């Protein structure tokens, strides 16, 4: 488990999805950044559960960071019927930019501040952790 570092996520930071479309982060909502790698077996097993997270925590925006190709991202969106954006990001960039060292990994952003940074092994951990943070 990673320790929380005081990262201030600026809502002016520009994120784009894997097709280059801008992603708007809603200030009034909590946002969870989920980092996965398609080379990580835990991450691949975790993928079907991400849609469940949006059902169990409807007041949380989800942004997935993944190193898949355009075709792989399109396929995942269609197969899992995801309604949230995917940002293309290699693990080395995630480590440099967000200090992500293990996968799968989550960051919870509330009011522009990172209130949680943690690697996770089980999907239920995410829901429990987020509910513990008042989400």
Outline the structure in words.
- The chain has one domain (37-132): Glutaredoxin.
- The chain is 31% helix and 25% strand.
- The protein has helices spanning 41-46, 50-56, 70-80, 91-98, 123-132; strands spanning 15-16, 22-23, 30-36, 60-66, 86-88, 105-110, 113-119.
- A hairpin with a 2-residue loop joins β6 and β7 (113-119).
- The longest helix has 11 residues, at 70-80.
- The two termini are 20 Å apart.
SSE inventory with pairings:
Layout: E1 15-16, E2 22-23, E3 30-36, H1 41-46, H2 50-56, E4 60-66, H3 70-80, E5 86-88, H4 91-98, E6 105-110, E7 113-119, H5 123-132
Parallel strand pairs: 3-4, 4-5
Antiparallel strand pairs: 1-2, 3-6, 6-7
Question: What is the terminal-to-terminal distance?
Answer: 20 Å
Strand segment count: 7
Main β-sheet, spatial strand arrangement: 5-4-3-6-7
Domain count: 1
Low-confidence stretches: 1-9
Q: Can you identify the CATH superfamily?
A: Glutaredoxin
SSE sequence, one letter per element: EEEHHEHEHEEH
Strand content: 25-35%
Mean pLDDT: 84
- CATH topology-level name: Glutaredoxin
What would the principal axes of the Cα set say about the shape?
globular
CATH architecture: 3-Layer(aba) Sandwich
Number of helices: 5
Q: Structural class, please?
A: alpha/beta
Biggest pleated sheet: 5 strands, mixed
Helicity level: 25-40%
């Amino acid at each position: 488990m990673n320790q929380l570092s005081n990262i201030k996520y600026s809502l002016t930071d520009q994120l784009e999805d894997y097709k280059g479309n801008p992603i708007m982060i809603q200030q009034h909502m909590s946002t969870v950044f989920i980092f996965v790698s398609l080379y990580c077996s835990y991450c691949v097993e975790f993928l079907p559960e991400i849609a469940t997270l949006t059902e169990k925590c409807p007041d949380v925006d989800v942004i997935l960071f993944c190193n898949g190709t355009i075709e792989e991202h399109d396929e995942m969106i269609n197969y899992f019927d995801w309604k949230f954006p995917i940002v293309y990001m290699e693990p080395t960039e995630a480590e440099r930019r967000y200090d992500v060292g293990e996968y799968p990994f989550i960051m919870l952003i509330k009011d522009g501040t990172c209130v949680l940074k943690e690697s996770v092994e089980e999907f239920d951990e995410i829901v429990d952790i987020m509910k513990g943070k008042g989400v």
